[in-house]
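Re: [help] complex structure
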Amino acid sequence: GAGVSQTPSNKVTEKGKYVELRCDPISGHTALYWYRQSLGQGPEFLIYFQGTGAADDSGLPNDRFFAVRPEGSVSTLKIQRTERGDSAVYLCASSLTGEETDYTFGSGTRLTVV
Amino acid sequence: AQSVAQPEDQVNVAEGNPLTVKCTYSVSGNPYLFWYVQYPNRGLQFLLKYITGDNLVKGSYGFEAEFNKSQTSFHLKKPSALVSDSALYFCAVRYNNNDMRFGAGTRLTVKP
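Output below.
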């Protein structure tokens, strides 16, 4: 597609529930990134995929968070046993491979855990 | 580890005046530096980047940034601010890997 698409745009869930957030990157972009942005903060790195594999998952806060990209395109960020502290905007970005390239971000999914 | 700092949470300028949004970085070696802008309820939009070469980088919407290695800074500038420039601005750095680290952001308000 023309841009990075994230669905849903908003998600409200109850504490303890499981949620999945979807990211559809720009076609041909091999690199895909997930970030979390809390209110008043800059985006915080979560995980980076190069193709199908997670090249760097050092930003995932704990084992309740997991992400997959099985076919090297769409990615799903999965959060188990959600907590109120997980409430944030989850941003996805994609890029061509290379340190000099900039990212294209999606509009994000606003997750609210009540 | 590489990082960036944005020392100002908020910058206020009058329309038509020049604006500066500050960024300093901490990284060994040669950094790749970026500026992004975020409008309400929207994702981050790329403004400009410094990779190598000329220290003055020109980007979208009339913005520019100057890379200063001795001061480890990459301040964002615009000669004449517009009300529509009001937004949240993020500085970011990449170094020898493929993840990008962002500053905490600076909220720019341009008043008519």
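Chain B has a mean pLDDT of 91.
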